[in-house]
Amino acid sequence: MTGASVLTGQRRRVIDPAEFGRVGVLMGGWSSERQVSLWSGEGVVEALRSRGVDVTAIDATRDNILRLREQRIDRVFNVLHGTGGEDGTVQAVLDLLGIAYTGSGVLASALAMDKLRTKRLWKAEGLPTPDYAWLRERADLDAAARRFGYPFIVKPSEEGSSVGVTKVKSAAQLDEAWQAALGEHGRAAMAERFVSGCALGHEFTCAILAGEALPTIRIEPDGEFYDYHAKYVSDATRYHCPSGLDAAFETRIRSICLQAFELIGARGWGRVDFMLDGDGQPWLIEVNLVPGMTAHSLVPMAARVQGMDYADLCWAVLETTLPPVAGVGQ
């Protein structure tokens, strides 16, 4: 049945796993999100194998990603989270090697990893995102405190999984928040106005797959906000999908999230995080172009509501790496 496929949305629907060729699942890597990436990768490998895909698990290093052709890899399912795998670096290598891969290209990946520039682009195009400040030196943090008042958020501008994020509630936390945002290697940092929640809550996310915004998810974190512990460690964080939003408002929000995703040139799949304030106004926070695929991850939750199990989702994401059938959907 090789070649039996149709174009639906932004992905070519296939039946025969042989169409994918040999698939390398890039996981692990060298960022602060290495462990999360390994969890994601293990799930993807198992799911694809269960569907008959010829898949190879690859714990990525700076050396072995340059030798993927030697392993006869035809395409890559990238679940490298954070620096290197999500910021356009690995994407550039794969482009040079001529290997198709899941997710966005170099430019969109670099933009999405830089929260400051993403927010500048959204703001310039009239999309709602909380006020922010670039923290170039410690004095900028004091200025941000005066501008935003307490509480406000301090975080790295180029990090994921809520690494280094602090909800600053008083001046006594400023030094600690500054150090957490900078990390060991002096990352770029930013401050952001805190968005107080609506009656339902205030943390939401919207998964994107092949040009479609999936049902939104409302998050009740175990703790004050959706930090690393709440995401990957705690079993007390609660998720609601459907999120409970009014149907018309849900449609509007999904449209805004899809626009935010496409505005930075993203493709394939990803996730847009947003908050709702006390007046029900949506505020875009960030976009994640290599979302988690762990047992706690959000994209698989939204896919289930859409009628796709975990293996279906992995298959669908992989389908986005295939070129359209000649003469179809063009």
From TrEMBL:
Keyword Transport (UniProt): no
Cofactor: Mg(2+); Mn(2+)
Single annotated GO MF: D-alanine-D-alanine ligase activity
GO CC field: cytosol
E.C. numbers: 6.3.2.4
Highest taxon in the source lineage: Bacteria
Active site residues according to the UniProt entry: 33, 161, 297
Binding site for Mg(2+) 1: 273, 286
Enzyme class: ligase
Entries under InterPro entries matching the protein: ATP-grasp, ATP_grasp_subdomain_1, D-Ala_lig_Van_CS, D_ala_D_ala, Dala_Dala_lig_C, Dala_Dala_lig_N, PreATP-grasp_dom_sf
PROSITE patterns in the cross-refs: ATP_GRASP (PS50975), DALA_DALA_LIGASE_1 (PS00843)
Example of a GO biological process term: regulation of cell shape
UniProt feature coiled coil, ranges: none
Domain ATP-grasp, first and last residues per copy: 119-319
Binding site for Mg(2+) 2: 286, 288
Keyword Transcription regulation included in the entry's annotation: no
Purpose: Cell wall formation.
Stated family: Belongs to the D-alanine--D-alanine ligase family.
Family matches, as PANTHER family: D-ALANINE--D-ALANINE LIGASE, D-ALANINE--D-ALANINE LIGASE B
Identification of the protein by name: D-alanine--D-alanine ligase
Organism: Sinimarinibacterium flocculans
